[in-house]
Design brief:
Elements lengths: L3 H14 L14 H11 L3 H14 L1 H9 L3 H7 L1 H14 L20 H13 L11 H5 L3 H14 L8 E4 L12 E8 L6 E8 L4 E4 L2 H5 L1
Antiparallel strand pairs: 1-4, 2-3
Helix pairs in contact: 1-2, 1-3, 3-4, 4-5, 7-9
The protein binds zinc ion (ZN).
Length: 222
């Protein structure tokens, strides 16, 4: 049984997706019971019904048109629910699986390759690729999107990295550092006793907190 508030939220979403028509502004909260029935019939939770409504009004031009032209959009949606669901399910089933972003930094070394080699290949062939100072070869970046393919192409990519190549890095201070407050600069006091009676010399120095990270393409291109 769908909760009251979820059905109401879905009804409001439906009105939004219809283009927030003024003539249904007051009617939309009254769509809640019908929306609850729709959700129960289809087995939708709130995120599921949101996807369905989005498909009905943003993806499927045909239903978008007749729902927007309907004298009672909620009744129209209920009436066509069966055929819409059938097509929506087919659409969902044919969608490619979500792509897990490739993250070589998290990969365990394989076939005798080292973590260092993985980082160098990643830096050169993906991160640094296409920058003015780096390689122009964008092929790997554009085509290697999963671990299996990355591993297959790895020896080839490794051979492309120039000897002694190092990816440019920048230092990023720790945002939680208490000493510099995340600025990376701290005001230290130095004592200078050169001839004088001794005075304190204050100067900004780099804070040792934080870590080095690879620079982004945009930073490299600046
Ligand atoms: Zn610090």
């Amino acid at each position: 049984m769908t909760g009251k508030s979820e059905a109401l939220l879905a009804a409001q979403r439906f009105w939004n997706l219809l283009g927030r028509p003024d003539e249904f502004r007051d009617a939309a909260p009254g769509w809640e019971p019908a929306m609850r029935n729709l959700m129960d019939d289809a087995g939708f939770d709130l995120s599921g019904v949101r996807e369905f409504l989005k498909w009905c009004l943003k993806v499927n031009d045909f239903s978008a048109k007749y729902l927007r032209e309907a004298r009672d959009p909620m009744a129209c949606l209920r009436k066509n629910q069966g055929s819409l669901l059938k097509r929506f399910n087919a659409y969902e089933a044919s969608k490619p699986a979500a792509v897990v972003p490739l993250n070589p930094a998290a990969m365990e070394p394989w076939d005798g390759h080292t973590k260092h080699q993985i980082a160098v290949v990643w830096g050169y062939c993906f991160y640094y690729a296409g920058t003015c100072k780096g390689t122009d070869d964008l092929w790997y970046r554009e085509h290697v999107h999963d671990e299996a393919f990355f591993k297959k192409k790895f020896p080839e990519m490794l051979a492309k990295v120039p000897p002694k190549w190092r990816a440019p890095k920048k230092h990023v201070p720790d945002p939680a550092c208490l000493k510099c407050g995340g600025t990376g600069r701290t005001l230290d006091v130095e004592h200078d006793y050169h001839g004088r009676k001794g005075f304190d010399l204050q100067r900004h120095v780099g804070c040792p907190c934080g870590k080095d990270v690879l620079m982004t393409r945009e930073e490299l291109l600046q």
